[in-house]
Design a protein that fits this description.
By secondary structure, this protein is mostly helical. It contains six helices and no strands. Helix 3 runs antiparallel to helix 6 and helix 4 crosses helix 5. The N and C termini lie far apart (about 30 Å).
Length: about 120
């Protein structure tokens, strides 16, 4: 299965994942799912979609620069979502507040952003 995933564009995988999530209850805040649902598969799937949405908005160069800085800065550390969103915001050409609010702090699953 892993080999076949590598041959499909990330946008195709993201669209398929989003479609599956859209059929599930829209009652989860990814940034704070609560103890009973902290390991709910939707947290992980929507978290991955959040990163895909961020990559789409930032573009590959900036997105991967954010990831490199993130791993270099916080290696072996405990960090928060707010620290990640702040780092991404410093690298972005436009504000990311609406993107992160929609994907992390609202129960309704947002649409994926279109390609740049």
């Amino acid at each position: 299965m892993v080999g076949s995933l590598r041959q499909r564009p990330a946008a195709t995988i993201a669209a398929r994942t989003r479609a599956k999530l859209a059929d599930q209850p829209q009652d989860l805040l990814v940034a704070d799912p609560g103890r009973p649902r902290m390991f709910d598969d939707r947290v992980y799937q929507q978290g991955a979609l959040t990163l895909h949405a961020l990559r789409t908005v930032l573009g590959d160069g900036t997105f991967f620069a954010v990831l490199r800085e993130w791993t270099a800065t916080y290696r072996h550390a405990t960090v928060t979502t707010e620290e990640f969103t702040a780092l991404a915001g410093r690298r972005a050409a436009q504000p990311l507040d609406a993107l992160f609010t929609a994907w992390l702090h609202a129960p309704r699953l947002p649409e994926l952003p279109g390609p740049r």
